[in-house]
Amino acid sequence: MDLWKYFDVTHRKHLVCNPSSGAKLTKLVELLNLPRGARVVDIACGKAAFLIRLAERYDIHGVGVDISPYFIAQAKERCAARTPNANLTFLEMNGADFHPEEPHSLQVASCLGASWIWQGHAGTLKALIEMVEPGGWVVTGEPYWLVDPPAEYLASLEASKDDFGTHQSNVKGAEKLGLELAYTIVSSPDDWDEYEGLQWYAAAEYAREHPDDPDLATILSRVEKSRMEYIRWGRDSFNWAIYLFRKGDDS
Q1: Contact partners, residue 114, CB within 8 Å, separation at least 6
Q2: Is 18:112 a contact under the CB 8 Å cutoff?
Q3: What is the rounded radius of gyration, in angstroms, for the C-alpha atoms of the chain?
């Protein structure tokens, strides 16, 4: 089935499409302390929860990029409803193909939870650094292991321990690239429970409303597998954080 349809179905109840919260995004927006008209890009913008908050506070010139046609459509709808006069543009495309008109020209480049676009956290940092001016902000959302993941968990995920680092290695890797850590916003168990639980809830509601969808069995099977993984292993093994990095003035 279409991957982006699956994420649309399972994230229908989400306003923030990652294991964080609206309050934490608002805190992030406050910390950035941007000048009016700042130039911003948010790669894998989802439903534009971050960009809309930035537009409300700073009147930014923002671009949201997402490969999902469902999320881009919802981002446009939410922007029209909440910030109809905002200078926001939304592009349906692979984030790896986005490049600003001029390199090193943005005040903020962010990617909250989609580092697979550049094959991991290091690749994401390098790509965003190229977009941001000296003294600007690089903002990432990245998973990390809380403990050594059980072999059964990795097998179920079809993943490797090396796919993600630790909280410390996420920071150290950025520092090696010349970034300075300014702040971290770490997900809580409650953040995770809401993020995961809303997916189960949304899938069950969708099943009741669309019993004849030919993709329904696949959707429910995948959700059940994800639920089992989270309850059995993920909640105790895995976490996620938003990292706020400052690019050096001489970079």
Answers
A1: 43, 44, 95
A2: yes
A3: 18
State the CATH number of the domain containing residue 176.
3.40.50.150
Residue 77 falls inside a structural domain: yes
Say whether pLDDT at 1 is over 90: no
Q: Is residue 166 part of a domain?
A: yes
Asked if residue 43 lies in contact with residue 117, where contact means CB atoms within 8 angstroms, the answer is yes
pLDDT per position as a tens digit, 152-205: 999 999 999 999 999 999 999 999 999 999 999 999 999 999 999 999 999 999
3-state secondary structure of 193: helix
Provide the domain limits for residue 19.
3-246
How many separate domains does the chain show? 1
Distance CA 50, CA 28 (A): 9
**Element holding 20 (H helix, E strand):** none
pTM of the model: 0.96
Residues constituting the chain:
251
